[in-house]
User: Fold Patatin from [Myrmecia] bisecta.
Amino acid sequence: MAATGADAPVDIGRYEAAAQPYVDRVLALGAKQYSDLISTVVEDGKDKTLQWVDLVMAGGGMLGIAHVGATYVFEKAGLRFHNIGGASAGAINAALVVTKRGEKPDAPSSLNTLRLMANFDFRKFQDDKDSKALWDFAQQAMADGKLSNWEKAQGAWQGLRQKGHLQEVWNRLGLHPGDFFESWIKGQMSDGGLATVRALNQRLKLDSIDSLKIRDGAASATTLDDVRQGKMVLIASDITTQTKAEFPEHAKLYWDNPEDVHPGIFVRASMSVPGFFTPVTITKLPSGPAAEANWQKVGFSKAAADKAWAEAAAAKAAKLAAAHKPVEAPESLKVHLVDGGILSNFPINAFHLPSVPLLPTFGVRFGRNRETHSGYADSTTPLDFAMSLFESSRHILDRDFINKNPDYTQLITNIDDTGFGWLDFNLPNDRKVALFAAGAKAAAEFLERFDWAKYKDTRKFLLDARTTSKAAPGAPMAQSAAAPAAPITPERKKAKVAT
Assistant:
């Protein structure tokens, strides 16, 4: 694949060298425990214990390169991924993890993903050259502080050239069709044997791992049979029915034969940044009692929507007829799917269970917190104001879950993305290496501080508190009296905790 811009091709050894200090740090941790679901592989003639975790990755556009660095270090530490999911860039890496590990679910994937990514020209994802020219100019103008001079800088000839093009962009609801990305991700997954949801679900099974077992002494209600079928959750935002679509589980809402759908379309939907990429549009939804029952489960009545849609179409037809204008055949209800980050950019709750876990759900996100990052709040430009609205909406729901389940703060690592643009498709190779290393660093620091025994104690403490609260009707709702990462002491057990 072509190198980015004028950069010379870079060997993956450069990426590995950048991550090596962090690999050394996790290897120095030795046999540290991260999970109670384990298996064994033979490596260099010796048995090696693998530990299984769930993994959720946040959206972030080009920042997703850092996800590859994080998974690289996780795998070097002997971790493998049971359930896996994410939104946008996180969805892309989740799909590639399952694809690139091949038919053996305990095989590492990140080195294969790195080979794919190292010299890939990400500008190809911008598959409309005129839109790319506009976007590149806007990026440079913002960097130079000259966005107000847009029209002057463009020049009269380019403005005339863009006139028809802007109408095309308006009609398709995005600067770029997204066709190249869709073809690319489908090609990667098909080449890896994952051309259908059926094949994907089969690949997620752990039945082929004979050595899979629960660690001796583990105290969890989860059994080995409960975890033999892994799960993938890729988030997309259905802006028509206002549904947080979780694929492949929700494929039955949108397709008549969900098992035959190519899972690459879920990734394409999840990364469809509104206005930047054309949304994935489903023009014919399943109908009938079974379809209605499926929609009812997500709090939506397709039958009622179909009726309202038909009534609106009839009213429009009557108005056109009265004006002696051509009446088009009415369309059926159609759905637009866009970037999953709109509703849930960091779906850390995707694999949440209320019980004491057998394995943890590790979360990887990008590190701009509300206290130290002012974002776009100080800007007075309409573009920055719009970006502030977008950033707020994509984080609020996930933050709400974490606020209500503060124990999850023990499971999350933040990648430092300072100085990187999430839609910078012109990223040169040295910056890509730096992003990869940032992900590796965040993963190493997280594994160094993560305490599996303490986390299980926290979850057991919270579970006991909920059980006690339910057993005493009328008792006041318990509130958290200590930080979730604090040790479980006899004194703390007497305190009230969040339910």
